[in-house]
Amino acid sequence: MDAEAKEHLIAEFRACLEDWDPTGDPDAPAPGEGATVDLALLFAELSVLRNEVRIEARQFKTALDDMRALTDMLSQQNLRLTRDLERAREAEGTVQRQTERRLLLDMLEVRDRIGAAMGVVNAYRPGLLSRLAPTETRLAQGLGEGIALTLRRLDDVLTERRVRAIEAVGGRLDPNTMRAIGTAMDANHAPGEVLSEARRGYMRDDDLLRLAEVIVNKQEI
Question: Taking Cα atoms as reference points, which of 153, 172, 133, 87 lies closest to residue 141?
Answer without folding.
Answer: 133
